[in-house]
Amino acid sequence: MPTAKHILDPPFNIVRSSHVSLGVTDLGRARAFYEETLGLHVEDVSKDAIYLRGVEERQHHSLVLSKQPEPNAGHLGFKVAGDEELDKAAHFFRAKGLDHTFAEVEYQGRTLRALDPSGMPIELYFKMEKRERLLQNYEHYKGAQPQRLDHFNVFAPNVQGTMNFYLSLGFRLTEYAQEDGPVGRIAAAWLHRKGNVHDLALTNGRGPRLHHLAYWVPGPLNIIHLCDVMATTGYLANLERGPGRHGISNAFFLYVRCPDGHRCEFYTSDYQTMDPDHEPIRWSLTDPRRQTLWGQPAPRSWFEEGSPFGGTPSRAALFEAAVAVAD
Amino acid sequence: MPTAKHILDPPFNIVRSSHVSLGVTDLGRARAFYEETLGLHVEDVSKDAIYLRGVEERQHHSLVLSKQPEPNAGHLGFKVAGDEELDKAAHFFRAKGLDHTFAEVEYQGRTLRALDPSGMPIELYFKMEKRERLLQNYEHYKGAQPQRLDHFNVFAPNVQGTMNFYLSLGFRLTEYAQEDGPVGRIAAAWLHRKGNVHDLALTNGRGPRLHHLAYWVPGPLNIIHLCDVMATTGYLANLERGPGRHGISNAFFLYVRCPDGHRCEFYTSDYQTMDPDHEPIRWSLTDPRRQTLWGQPAPRSWFEEGSPFGGTPSRAALFEAAVAVAD
Amino acid sequence: MPTAKHILDPPFNIVRSSHVSLGVTDLGRARAFYEETLGLHVEDVSKDAIYLRGVEERQHHSLVLSKQPEPNAGHLGFKVAGDEELDKAAHFFRAKGLDHTFAEVEYQGRTLRALDPSGMPIELYFKMEKRERLLQNYEHYKGAQPQRLDHFNVFAPNVQGTMNFYLSLGFRLTEYAQEDGPVGRIAAAWLHRKGNVHDLALTNGRGPRLHHLAYWVPGPLNIIHLCDVMATTGYLANLERGPGRHGISNAFFLYVRCPDGHRCEFYTSDYQTMDPDHEPIRWSLTDPRRQTLWGQPAPRSWFEEGSPFGGTPSRAALFEAAVAVAD
Amino acid sequence: MPTAKHILDPPFNIVRSSHVSLGVTDLGRARAFYEETLGLHVEDVSKDAIYLRGVEERQHHSLVLSKQPEPNAGHLGFKVAGDEELDKAAHFFRAKGLDHTFAEVEYQGRTLRALDPSGMPIELYFKMEKRERLLQNYEHYKGAQPQRLDHFNVFAPNVQGTMNFYLSLGFRLTEYAQEDGPVGRIAAAWLHRKGNVHDLALTNGRGPRLHHLAYWVPGPLNIIHLCDVMATTGYLANLERGPGRHGISNAFFLYVRCPDGHRCEFYTSDYQTMDPDHEPIRWSLTDPRRQTLWGQPAPRSWFEEGSPFGGTPSRAALFEAAVAVAD
User: Fold this and answer.
1) What crossing angle do the helices spanning D220-231 and B220-231 adopt, rounded to 10°?
2) pLDDT value at position D21?
3) N or C: which end of chain C has fewer CB within 10 A?
């Protein structure tokens, strides 16, 4: 059984998942989708990039769309608790022999970039430029009314190993899916720093690849409205899975694919988890309500397709989990 | 006690309340409110008028904003079941000695205009130009997402008398507010033709004046969103009453005032009433849940202010009803 | 193309769909499902039957569960506009050579039972016993908070023929699904009397069989809550299809199966249709948004399984419609 | 201007607000209200007390109703990050000369009770007995479906002083209401530990007294349903304020009073605040949208009435804030 031991004094203090950049092949097409359809706010635009955020976010961006020859995902961005945490992190990565480097990144200042043991690129920062929040600028609400980036989910070829790494950084396990039987390999894990179900989830599969990023929305009706909008504006095929209720996390959800194939989740109504003695919840891989409380299995694409991280090769999973697929 | 006798064979067949025109003093200011804030769809614009409709309506307009030196209300528009009903109506009005005249009205064709016994101007038509419905054009939904005009509410100086007139036209009583005691004067009445709580409501007061028009919206969250939008876009003072649940009709509601002072209600979730043996529901004037199920009284403005009908003088009510006012 | 001609003066006046009885094999098990889980109100219980209604309904029952050796459906019940309409209907059926008989039915009085030309049993009545409405007895709301019976949907082996019969009774067509091409056979039709999308829908297939009955609920969140309840109380396998948005009707829906296999829909937010010149909407059989606006096809069971009418043999459909099935 | 400096290394680590006990004069009457009407889950009952929790909470109780001769409030309960934090807290209170004592409290074990500098009783604990969560026991959801205790709000006679004390414990300021002008006294402050808008709010007024406790609910419709239920089950007069949208916190809210006069808020949809550089938001006392974004002022009772803490005398506020009152 996975440990639930909470490391109160981690080697450096990650506050939460913060932002990510996605490589897209057509900025105009991507903007039409992310801004006009999903409803994210465009904060800045350059020749090669579009910076977006949710209505609640006072940081400059939680999503960067950057022009690339092929779709891919950039570093997963995490905010740390102070500038000195970046130095502690560099020290930690050095001691572990993990690639890392400091960079000055536009709008977010001093940034530490590193590869985790699975080769997944992450970046840490403390100070991002601030902008006025839009939470009470209700006239600009549109699409699904995304409020804030909530979490990342990645395909991990070795869920147990990657989980152990993030647990050592002070992430805490909230739920996990496990094979039945004496071996009981873990097929998926939900890990948090900020006090809800997750900042980072790991899904067994060829990786590292980005499975999805997720935005928090006010409630289920925002998700239903997004379905209605997408179905009637040419994005019918981009509705991949849902809406539904997750068994894991209890959140109401929808998965959509952008024109470049990146997967975005809209997510609402999970629960709080900040207690140090919070106990993780186990789900059997064979429980049909794990993926969707109402029993609908996810489509094959959801299990197999993801965004490669730029410059990071992926490798096959250590084992194949026996999941229910809607074929 | 009011009769609930349903006249199955009325002198002419009114289908439902359909549209109204409001005189406004500044078309640009009115459009900003009705289109951008409330979310009605502008179907046509002329030099002196703006034609609007809800997303469900396939008729050309349910609201006409016309440039006038002073704010006022035009004829209350009702749709009849066939062109021949207009002739039957003219015959009826002639027999009753009520002023009436035929007009060709833009977009709505042959129209019979008349004054009811209280002097209130109404108009009847059968064929209005049709437009594509917007019900599944979800990307254009905004504001409160008004779907369709639901009803009119008017100040009547003689509720009982006006009610009797409309009952004779085949309107049916669904709910009414009555003084307690042996006299039991009726202070308000809800009358329908289309099968829900009302097409026309009568409120005791100086009249005839338009108390409000109401648009149906999909649900309470649309109304909450409109409050949020109005409160943060300079229309805080235009939020007059609500949101809340009506005791009468059981609908969830909000009343707002446009920049010219016309009152609009947003209304959702009443109940069906088409049974000929449907029995009207009596409310005592002293029941605090009548106006708002949750007990909040309406403000004084709600009881006293209304839109005069152009060219129609109003007169004092026959009696003053003892209503609860939030002062 | 189907006619939209509204018959204003039908041979007899049907007001709306009203009630149905379902034969169930275990009354206790059925009650646990319909009352405790779906949330219908049990109005009366006898040795062999349970009478239920929605919170808005003032009639004694809209659903009767009766003990039977095998699951089946009874007569589809329609309310007429007056007692004399029953005699007009008897006259009409006699002239058409259709089986019919008068019966005294408990709680609903004088009732005319007949077989329509497809052999489907229907019953007409005017006066049912009344009960206090529960609409504002909010503490008793539970399950999906069903408000009222909205419509029936039946498998018809000859949709065009059955549709023509009900059109001749004054039913009006609102939407229909049609094959593309020169023949253009109609595979499904939605017909109403009461002023919304339907009282009766016809689906191409072996019949006559009851496809489903539908209750109106206040909004989508009531349906989501029912999914959550059913998924966690042993009824996971009884969630058959949805929740989703219908392309046809624009309603938000869910289909569930009771322990005896009868299909119930929960339905909300369609649109009004009482205009005599309301034009029906055509959907191509190949449009994936017809069944579900968001593109998810219905499962095979939804196309094939239905409740036989007691004593009425079913026969194969005249043709097989090429529908999208989720297999 | 209040400092936003986050103390990352507080003298002891409070995780979040956790529970409170309320003295009630009639346990049966209180249970009917808190369990049957509000929808809290009764976990345990003794002769003198009832223990309740929300559906998400795995701790034994977040609310204890205890039989008392007069209504009052007990210690405000906060969870700390480990058992050793209790000793650190005792050390801290001793150094500050604040009354404190250890107690063994049923179901929550070793508990440190203390008076803060204003004389308000608080208690700290680490390990409370755990129970199975009810989050996915949807069939038991009722009332407002309270999920978890979110925060306390207390009347403080010296908001600035009390705020400074809690800031020194690592609480962080998220929003505050301030007089305009050069003096700029603070009239209210919102302070958190757990990462949303607050665990503890301070309201200028005679105190210390408990202003209210608040439960998180899934969304606005749960609050609307509670209004409907209370208005129709004899609790109309217990609906004190709302529903509405707070300007501060942006949450949708409702305030109700229990039969003993204790005030409970139902609260949903605020925003996350765990960033160390999160900047507090200032509201002018004269902004009508501060209390309620939609402009409705709170009633006088809301400003004046609160629950005394047992054994703790209250004293007048240092100044009288000029707030808008609905009279």
Assistant:
1) 110
2) 97
3) C
Closest C-alpha among B37, B85, B41 to residue B62 = B41
pLDDT for residue C257: 98
Q: What is the pLDDT of residue D259?
A: 98
Residues whose CB falls within 8 Å of the CB of residue B273, separated by 6 or more in sequence, listed in order: B172, B174, B192, B195, B196, B197
SS3 for B217-239 is: CCCHHHHHHHHHHHHCCCCHHHE
Neighbouring subunits of C (3+ Cβ pairs under 8 A): A, B, D
Q: What is the DSSP pairing of strand D186-192 with strand D200-204?
A: antiparallel
CA D53 to chain centre: 14
Quote the Cα angle for D241-D243-D247, to 5°: 90
For B303, the 3-state DSSP assignment is: helix
D224 vs D217: CA distance, rounded Å: 11
- pLDDT, mean of residues B84-88: 98
Supply the Cα-derived Rg of chain C in whole angstroms. Answer: 19
Helix, strand or coil for residue D302?
helix
Question: Contact at 8 Å (CB) between A199 and A193?
Answer: yes
Instruction: Please report which residue ranges of chain B form alpha helices under DSSP H.
Output: 27-31, 83-96, 159-168, 220-231, 300-304
Cα-flanking dihedrals φ and ψ of residue B50, to 5°?
Answer: -125, 130
Which single residue is written with the structure tokens 């026969």? C315
How many Å apart are CA A312 and CA C50, to the nearest integer?
Answer: 65
What is the per-residue pLDDT across C139-184, written as a single tens digit (0 to 9) for each?
Answer: 999 999 999 999 999 999 999 999 999 999 999 999 999 999 998 9
Residues on chain D touching B232 (C-beta within 8 angstroms) = 289, 293
Q: List b or e across C159-172, with b for residues whose CB sees 16 or more CB atoms inside 10 angstroms.
A: bbebbebbbebbbb
| Residues of chain B contacting residue C8, judged by C-beta atoms under 8 Å apart | 13, 81-82
Q: Estimate to the nearest angstrom the gap between the alpha carbon of C45 and the chain centroid.
A: 23
Contact D136 C219 (CB under 8 A): no
User: Inter-chain contact C252–A295, Cβ cutoff 8 Å?
Assistant: no
Interface predicted TM-score (ipTM) of this complex, two decimals: 0.96
| CA distances (Å), origin A205, targets A153, A180, C105 | 12, 18, 63
3-state secondary structure at position C98: coil
Cis bond before residue C146 (omega within 30° of 0)? no
What's the pLDDT score for residue B173? 97
> Residue C91: enclosing H or E segment and its boundaries?
helix C83-96
Give the model's confidence band at B291: pLDDT under 50 very low, under 70 low, under 90 confident, else very high.
Answer: confident
Please tell me which of the candidates C126, C148, C274 has its beta carbon nearest to residue B16: C274
At residue B321, the 3 state secondary structure works out as: coil
β-strands C263-268, C252-257: how paired? antiparallel
Which residues of chain C have a CB within 8 Å of the CB of D233?
138-139
A120-129 per-position pLDDT tens digit: 999 999 999 9
- Beta bridge partners, D202, equal D154, D189
Q: Do D269 and A126 touch (CB under 8 A)?
A: no
Substitution target in A33, A139, A223 with the highest count of B β-carbons within 10 Å is A139
The mean predicted confidence, pLDDT, of chain D is 96
Q: What is this structure's pTM?
A: 0.97
pLDDT attached to residue A177: 96
Residue A254: closest CA among chain C residues belongs to which residue? Answer: C294
Q: Of C79, C145, C133, C274, which is closest to residue B280 (Cα–Cα)?
A: C133
